[in-house]
Amino acid sequence: MxxxxxxxxxxxxxxxxxxxxxNQQRMxxxxxxxxxxxxxxxxxxxxxxxxxxxxxxxxxxxxxxxxEEELTAMEAEPPVRRPRGRxxxxxxxxxxxxxxxxxxxxSTSTGTVPGQxxxxxxxxxxxxxxxxxxx
Length: 135
Fold this sequence. Notes:
Elements: H1 11-63, H2 68-73, H3 97-101, H4 119-124
């Protein structure tokens, strides 16, 4: 009966009925995809939640002394996303109030660049005063 009209059916109704039949066939073909899309979205939500927890635990392992190289060797890859919060401290750039106030810190009263000696300091350390500040 596909594509045929009944004597009582007008052409518009026949057209729409045929379109509906074709659409039903197409819908059958997309039903498995719809189920997979829903399952995939659910798994992505689960993965997002797992990644967040994984990131926190990875950071905890680093805080406990594990290095990225050690963790990677054990198949614990660095997290895709780090946990929210304070950014990680940069190694070798720890500046504390004590370090800033220490006598070996930058001298603002004499205007010297950190690591330079004044002529007086060079003389007191046994160096040639003409070489002061030329490190």
